[in-house]
Amino acid sequence: VMPLRWDDTCPACLAGHQHICQRLDFIGIDSPGAMQQRWTVPASTLIRLPDTLPLDRAALVEPTAVAVHDVGRAKVTEGEKVVVVGGGPVGILIALVARAAGADVRVVELSAHRRLLAEELGLTAWDPADDDVPALVGEWTGGAGADVAFEVSGAAGGVDTAVDVLGVRGRLCLVAIHPRPREINLHRFFWRELTLIGARLYDRSDFERAVALVADGTIAVGRLISKVVPLTQAPAAFEALEGGGDVMKILVDCTTGTDHTHDARGADV
C-alpha cells in the first residue's frame, strides 16, 4: 500500500510528513485496492520495479520498506549494537536492514521456527524463555548495553526487554502496534538518558530503497515466503497467520491460474 493522496491543509503534510498525514488515505486500507488482479491508481503512487525482479519477491517490498523506515528513524549507523525484540517478518527484515547498514545485530524471539530462520539468514537469535537476554547483551557489549533496540513483539515483556538491554543514550524504536497501554520503566529512561522513537509506515524514499535492497539480493526476502496460495484460500491464510506456528509470510496469488510455484501476482498477508 502507498498513500493515495495527501491533504494540503494538514500540518503534518505541510511539514513534509505526508506518509503520516493526519487524514491519511491508504490504498487497500482507507480506499479500495487489494486482493484483486488490477485496479486504477494515481500515477504518483507508483514505483518502478526492475524487470528482473520476480513478482513474489516484489510482494515483500512493502514490509521491507517498513524495515527501512524503522532503521532510518532509529538512525542506525555502522558498528552499532542493535537488538531486535520480536523475530516475525518485520523483525527479521529490520535485523537484515540494520545489518546492511553495518550494525551488529541480535534477534530475540520465542518461536524456535523463527529463530532457526533468523540463524539461516546469518543472524544470531536468542530465546527469551531460556536465555537471560540482558545478561547476554552485557557480555556481547562489554557491559555497555545496546545502542538501539527495536520493539517488534507487541508484548509487555518485549517492551521490558527492549528497555533493559539499552545502554547510556540508547534509542528504543517502537515498531509494534500495542493493543493497550503498557507500563514502561521510566526510571531507566531517566537514569540512562534513553530516547523513545515512534516508527509508522514509510515514505517514498524508504520504498525506493527497499526495492533496491530486494532487487540486488541484499535482503533475501524469498526466505520469508512460507507458501503461495490462490485467492480462494485467502481466509485460511489469515487464520494460519493468526495462529502463529511455523508460518512467516503467505502470498496470495490473485491470478486465475492454478500454478503457484513461481511468481505470486498478488499481495502478501
Can you tell me about this structure?
This protein has 269 residues and is α/β, with parallel strands linked by helices. Among the domains are: 46 residues, no CATH class; 137 residues, Rossmann fold, CATH 3.40.50.720. Helix content is 32%, strand content 19%. It contains 10 helices and 11 strands. The strands form 3 sheets. It has a 6-stranded parallel beta sheet with strand order 5-4-3-6-7-8, sandwiched between helices. Helix 3 packs across helix 4 and helix 3 crosses helix 9. It is globular. About 3% of the residues have low confidence.
Q: What structural class do the secondary elements suggest?
A: alpha/beta
Strand sequence of the main sheet, in spatial order?
5-4-3-6-7-8
Major sheet: size, sense and barrel closure?
A: 6 strands, parallel
| Terminal CA distance | 12 Å
Descriptive terms for the model:
Rossmann fold, 11 strands, 3-stranded mixed sheet, 269 residues, 19% strand, 10 helices, 6-stranded parallel sheet
Topology record:
Blueprint: E1 3-5, H1 11-14, E2 25-26, H2 55-58, H3 61-73, E3 81-85, H4 89-100, E4 104-108, H5 112-120, E5 124-126, H6 133-140, E6 146-151, H7 156-164, E7 166-174, H8 186-192, E8 195-198, H9 204-215, E9 225-230, H10 234-242, E10 249-253, E11 266-268
Parallel strand pairs: 3-4, 3-6, 4-5, 6-7, 7-8, 9-10
Antiparallel strand pairs: 1-2, 10-11
Helix pairs in contact: 3-4, 3-9
